[in-house]
Design a protein that fits this description.
The complex is a heterodimer.
Chain A lengths: L1 H16 L1 H14 L3 H21 L4 H18 L6 H14 L14 H14 L2
Helix pairs in contact in A: 2-3, 2-6, 3-4, 4-6, 5-6
Chain B lengths: L1 H17 L2 E5 L6 E4 L2 E4 L5 E8 L2 E8 L8 E6 H10 L2 E4 L5 E4 L3 E5 L4 E4 L4 E8 L2 E8 L6 E6 H9 L3 E2 L19 H10 L9 H5 L2 E2 L13 E4 L3 E4 L5 E4 L4 E6 L4 E7 L15 E3 L9 E4 L13 E4 L5 E5 L5 E4 L5 E6 L5 E5 L5 E4 L1 H9 L3 E3 L1 H10 L3 H5 L36 E2 L5 E2 L4 H6 L3 H8 L2 H14 L6 E2 L17 E8 L2 E9 L2 E2 L6 H18 L3 H12 L19 H19 L4 H5 L5 H9 L9 H15 L6 H8 L12 H9 L2 H5 L3 H32 L5 H18 L1 H16 L2 E5 L5 E8 L8 H13 L7 H7 L10 H10 L11
Classes of the chains: A mainly alpha, B alpha+beta.
Chain lengths: 128, 857
């Protein structure tokens, strides 16, 4: 029994600080939702949850920037009125511009990790 | 008890495995079985369970079948026949756990609720048993996210199997470039691909490659060994001790040896640099890609060229001329090849003081112009006379010291004096090369008056521009700025169709190399390459006219914006970065698209008199804007940039203000992407690439670049002012009103390169650090000094330089590991070792007259 408790605590603690993994899991969940309304609602909830994590936790540099950049990309996603090709395209371009992507053509290579996750979420919810 | 249970399970599983050999039928009407005394043939896809041998026959159980006349249940088959079929492949053993199959072409299957779903290439399924006419499958992984049981017609399944639409082979991962937009096997693989994706290398389709020019190893070889080059940008090098060093823009280097890396010797550092050249001694290494010919200008070795110190006598080459200014009158004169010139001293701003033909009158020549002629071997130095002069004038000391030349003399006004308004006489125009010419070493120097031809401005028009004091001032500043541009411009075709529209044309072409017979994208070749723009009277005045009008229209301080344009492009309208950022504002395709997306949104709202107009109207006030930013993202009706167009620029875009004609033209003729171009990144890139010449040709250029730059700067500054005030209040940062004003300008400048989100993140991190009451002490390169800390109370007593240092530090340390881009952003405002960056480039252009062109914060 003690082993189980120990294992649980280690897992919990690891997840509490690995913001990237928390975000990934949520992206997967949101991407499986079918309705636009549900997805948007979940994105809003995720925004508020990550904001709380950022505000209340002592994050490492890496996790801080993942959370901050991901939140900034969520700001743009929650403003979308629908996931039309037009809207998806414009939001993606806006995100790349906000993060100062200056590479040839519209490459996502230079995006910080948190913003990449935002783009992944955008692509997944836009592909339907 | 648990041991007993374990034993029971073990025995049970053993018994199942013992009798669980299954085979599937692979050929139609070949395998004969006997059921209820009747012979029948099995069909392909039928599944049988093999049981024990009984004499000549083997007992079997038919699990699934589509053969007419055969039912599921017991049957038997001749033992030798069974073995023959196994050998011939008519029967195939089936493992208990069905192996995965992969879809190679899109197919339709039916899921448990009767709905039909599409499986896409790469989706993973397991093929299960036949149920009547149906073949059961299990979807393991699909792009639609659907998993679980599904069915497919068995005949269809067999057809798919034969034609390899359903394959047992694990699909070979396609390259990212060939993958359809948004199609990914899984989130993990998508993230992985995004991390590894080299978008720049693979962003060209086959068609473009086939029309490209084959250039093998375009940037993989070092420049010619032995020659000296001036570098037009900052490069990273590695010293012998494997220490990474930076060589500032404007340094002169020489290549010592070449290979996979280039060994270089740093011969001279720019005047503004405070680095010691010995740190590069005896040589350093760098990658060939850092020494791209676009950023190298071949020059004479400093040791071989004569330093233009006091006493040096020279003449200009036959195709050269240079403007000089009378020391007493300030009037402008053209010095020509027939004149014998002698350097008598240096002005405090670095310009050369010369005399002509032994006369007593003194003239000042801008140092950039004379140095350029010297670098290009366009000066004939009389060495004997120079040596004698230096010795007889006893000016050896003066040759190394800056002197203040005497000017108690009167200039004579020559006939070729150009009559410009009196107030404009101290502006330093450059003499342009109207045609290609050769220097004394036989090197061709290209004509550099490209925009002059296109503008066709009359002298009277130019003088009219120069009558406006502010335009005159910026004509001078821009003229000085143009002299420091890089040699990478394009002079594309600006031919127009019958309706007067520029005919779209590319300014770049794909280049490729071949490896193992396969074409590989190797980069872009700039077409119609032109040298840096000449700081002519026409071009400088025209740019000043457009720049000042733009700042008046938008209500932005020209001195606030000047340093950004100066750093980005040195006001060269046709300069192009390696990442194909174009023109005066160096706008990359992402920002170009973003600007027009948001402008078009705003325009459509203005045209339809949308209710959003009333929503956005208050955002032009401080309180209104604060309310917008404080509202939750999901309740915001428009993005920040669209809101800026609606609240701050609507009247300017739609009105008839004289200064705003450039903005109105952009508003009336925006870029509108066809919907087909929005389907994927490659399509939009292709669309934009095909029209890049339109952006470089007037009348769009330079207005579009100026307005885009200013709009990005202004709306970012607005956001940062809000953000700083909010953070100051919430986190008690003790910022004064002046600090908020200055810091918001610094952050807005920074965000011009790093993006508003890219810069606000590090700022938030800095605030977190300050809140702890201590922060790392930094050295002059903005790196922490061990564990040394300094006490802080928010931003109390933080100078602007402190702020820039700490911002540079947090940006630089944003990610672990090397990242050229992060260093570029970190150095963007303050530069490195006194050179480059917005601040360093401004100093260079102002030539000691601080605050004459721009303001450093």
């Amino acid at each position: 029994m003690w082993y189980y408790i120990l294992a649980f605590l280690i897992t919990f603690s690891a997840h509490a600080y690995d913001v990237g993994k928390v975000i990934d899991t949520n992206i997967k969940t949101i991407s499986l939702l079918k309705e636009f309304k549900d997805q948007k609602e979940r994105v809003s909830i995720l925004h508020s949850e990550i904001s709380k994590v950022k505000k209340n936790s002592e994050l490492s540099d890496k996790d801080f920037y993942i959370a901050t950049d991901f939140l900034k990309s969520l700001d743009a996603i929650v403003q979308m009125e629908n996931f039309s090709v037009e809207n998806c395209f414009n939001t993606r371009v806006g995100l790349l511009a906000d993060f100062g992507v200056r590479s040839v053509d519209m490459s996502e290579k230079n995006l910080p990790e948190g913003a990449k996750k935002g783009i992944v979420l955008l692509k997944l919810i836009c592909r339907k | 008890m648990k041991y007993f249970l374990f034993l029971l399970i073990f025995i049970f599983s053993r018994s199942i495995f013992a009798s669980s050999e299954f085979v599937s039928v692979k050929s139609d009407e070949v395998v004969e079985v006997i059921q209820n005394g009747k012979k029948s043939y099995l069909r392909s896809g039928d599944l049988i369970q093999i049981k024990e041998v009984d004499g000549w026959k083997r007992a079997i159980r038919i699990i699934t079948t589509i053969s007419p006349g055969i039912n599921t249940g017991d049957a038997f088959i001749g033992e030798s026949t069974y073995n023959d079929h196994l050998t011939d492949g008519n029967l195939s053993q089936v493992s208990l756990k069905p192996k995965s199959h992969y879809i190679t072409k899109a197919i339709e299957v039916e899921i448990y609720n009767g709905a039909k779903v599409q499986l896409s290439p790469g989706d993973e399924i397991r093929v299960l048993e036949v149920d009547g006419w149906k073949r059961k499958i299990e979807i393991i992984n699909s792009k639609t996210g659907i998993k679980g049981s599904a069915v497919i017609g068995n005949n269809t399944y067999l057809g798919y199997l034969n034609s390899n639409v359903i394959s047992k082979k694990t699909p070979v991962k396609k390259t990212f470039a060939k993958q359809e937009e948004y199609e990914y096997d899984s989130l993990d693989s998508l993230i992985q691909r995004l991390m590894n994706y080299d978008g720049e290398g693979d962003s060209v389709d086959d068609e473009e490659l086939s029309s490209g020019v084959e250039v093998s190893s375009v940037t993989t070889s070092c420049p010619q060994v032995g020659k000296a080059y001036k570098i037009d940008r900052f490069i990273n090098v590695q010293s012998k001790g494997d220490k990474t060093l930076g060589v500032p823009k404007g340094s002169t280097i020489s290549v010592k040896s070449s290979g996979s890396s280039c060994s270089i010797e740093v011969l001279e550092l720019p005047k503004e640099s405070n680095l010691n050249i010995k740190i590069y001694s005896p040589s350093v290494k760098t990658f060939p890609s850092n020494l791209n010919s676009d950023f190298l200008t071949e020059v004479q070795r400093p040791s071989e060229s004569v330093k233009l110190g006091p006493g040096v006598k020279f003449k200009l080459d036959k195709n050269s001329s240079v403007h000089a200014y009378g020391r007493r009158t300030g009037k402008r004169y053209k010095l020509e090849p027939k004149d014998t010139l002698k350097v008598v001293g240096k002005h405090r701003n670095g310009d050369y003081i010369v005399t002509r033909n032994g006369e007593k009158w003194e003239y000042r020549i801008p140092y950039e112009d004379l140095d350029e002629l010297n670098d290009n071997a366009q000066l004939s130095v009389n060495l004997m006379d120079s040596a004698t002069n230096i010795l007889t004038d006893n000016s050896l000391e003066e040759a190394v010291n800056t002197v203040s030349a005497e000017y108690d003399c009167t200039d004579d006004v020559r006939e070729n004096y150009e009559d410009v308004p009196l107030e404009a006489t101290d502006i330093e125009w450059q003499t342009c090369r109207l045609k290609n010419s050769k220097n004394s070493r036989g090197k061709t120097l290209q004509a550099n008056d490209y925009m002059d031809k296109e503008l066709k401005l009359k002298n009277s028009d130019i003088n009219k521009i120069l009558e406006v004091p502010e335009k005159r001032r910026f004509a001078k500043c821009i003229s000085s700025s143009l002299r420091h541009g890089t040699n990478r411009s394009s002079n594309p075709s600006c031919a127009k169709d019958s309706k007067g529209n520029i005919i779209p044309k590319r300014i770049r072409q794909a280049t490729y190399s071949k490896k193992s017979g396969k074409k590989r994208f190797a980069g872009w070749r700039l077409l119609n390459k032109a040298p840096k723009a000449c700081a002519s009277k026409e071009l400088s005045s025209h740019l000043a006219d457009r720049f000042v009008d733009m700042t008046k229209c938008l209500g932005v301080d020209a001195k606030e914006l000047f340093p950004i344009i100066n750093h980005e492009s040195h006001f060269q309208p046709k300069t192009i970065s390696p990442t194909f950022a174009l023109g005066v504002g160096q706008i990359v395709s992402v920002n170009y698209m973003d600007f027009y997306n948001k402008l078009n949104q705003a325009k459509s709202m203005i045209k339809s008199n949308s209710r959003v107009l009333n929503y956005a109207k208050p955002f032009s006030t401080k309180e209104g804007y604060r309310a917008y930013e404080d509202s939750p993202s999901r309740s915001k009706k428009v993005s920040r940039l669209t809101a800026f167009f609606l609240s701050d620029l609507k009247d300017k875009m739609t009105g008839n203000q004289k200064e705003c004609k450039g903005l109105k033209n952009i508003y009336d003729n925006p870029l509108t992407l066809p919907s087909s171009a929005k389907k994927s990144a490659s399509k939009v890139n292709e669309y934009l690439r095909a029209r890049e010449n339109e952006r470089l040709c007037s009348p769009k250029n330079p207005d579009e670049g100026f307005y885009m730059a200013a709009v990005y700067y202004m709306y970012n500054k607005k956001y940062f002012t809000y953000m700083l005030e909010k953070e100051n209040k919430e986190n008690k940062l003790n910022m004064t009103a002046k600090q908020i004003k200055d810091f918001s300008i610094i952050l807005a400048r920074w965000s011009y390169n790093g993006g508003v989100a890219g810069v606000s993140g590090p700022f938030e991190r800095l605030v977190q650090k300050l809140k702890k009451g201590t922060i790392e002490s930094l050295d002059k390169n903005n790196n922490p000094i061990g564990n040394k800390k300094r006490k802080v109370s928010g931003f109390s007593n933080f100078s602007n330089d402190d702020f820039k240092s700490y911002m540079s530090y947090v940006i630089k340390h944003r990610y672990k590991g090397g990242n050229a881009r992060r260093l570029e952003v970190a150095r963007y405002v303050a530069g490195s070792n006194g050179v480059g960056g917005i601040d360093g480039d401004l100093k260079q252009v102002e030539k000691g007259e601080e605050n004459s062109c721009g303001t450093t914060y």
